[in-house]
Amino acid sequence: MAELATIARPYAEALFRVAQGGNLQAWSETVAEMAAVAALPEVNELASNPRLTDAQIAETFLSVLKSSVSPEAKNLVAALVENGRIVLLPEVAEQFRQLVNQQQGSADAEITSAFPMEGAQVDGLVSALEKKFGRKLNPSVTVDSSLIGGVRVVVGDEVLDTSVRAKLQQMQTALAS
Q1: Which of 29, 85, 125, 155 stands 20 to 30 A from 132 (CA)?
Q2: Number of Cβ atoms within 10 Å of the Cβ of 96
Q3: What is the structure's pLDDT at 128?
Q4: C-alpha–C-alpha distance, residues 22 and 16, integer Å
Q5: Angle 6-83-51 (CA atoms, 0-180°, nearest 5)?
Q6: Which residues pair with 174 in a beta bridge?
Q7: Bridge partner list, 155
Q8: How many other CB atoms sit within 10 Å of the CB of residue 173?
Q9: Residue 118, Ramachandran bin (φ over 0: left; ψ between -120 and 50: alpha; else beta)
Q10: Considering the entire predicted model, what is its pTM?
Q11: Count of CB atoms within 10 A of residue 43's CB?
């Protein structure tokens, strides 16, 4: 993974510099969509098809996107295809998102709950978490019933696990030692 991150970094940084001159939110949406398409197994097959030219691969890739693509985004896709790196787009998008978050003073928060959470519950939790972490959070909520109860929050490399499963594991470790 470190190798992919190293290769993707210059693309993400260049893309970020271009996006700073325009609408950062629109660029974020475009990059996320391109990453989702690039993650499809069919794209990997397309990119490795020796019968297709780079231009055909790039054109086919761009035709799958729902949003209109700027000339700069087309150039990025063409460069990635030419260098055989179109499959790097998910990693480029991740690093691009980190650069956007860094500029905005925010972070992504992956919230995993044992039960579905309503809008007001999520808002209250995010508000408390923003105070704890000292920055604006962009939450994404998933449900995992194996937690039994509580929530598990991941912000960057920090983990806050208040789930029943985690507490049971702590108790087991304490009893075993």
Answers
A1: 29
A2: 25
A3: 94
A4: 10
A5: 140
A6: none
A7: 109, 158
A8: 9
A9: beta
A10: 0.79
A11: 18
How far apart are the C-alpha atoms of 31 and 150, rounded to whole Å? 33
pLDDT in tens, 67-93: 888 999 999 999 999 999 999 999 999
In which region does residue 84 sit, left (phi positive, over 0), alpha (psi from -120 to 50) or beta (all else)? left
Per-residue three-class SS string for the chain: CHHHHHHHHHHHHHHHHHHHCCCHHHHHHHHHHHHHHHCCHHHHHHHCCCCCCHHHHHHHHHHHCCCCCCHHHHHHHHHHHHCCCHHHHHHHHHHHHHHHHHHHCEEEEEEEECCCCCHHHHHHHHHHHHHHHCCEEEEEEEECHHHCCCEEEEECCEEEECCHHHHHHHHHHHHHC
Q: What is the distance between the terminal CA atoms of the chain, rounded to a whole angstrom?
A: 35
Instruction: Look up residue 145 and give its two tokens.
Output: 């019933």
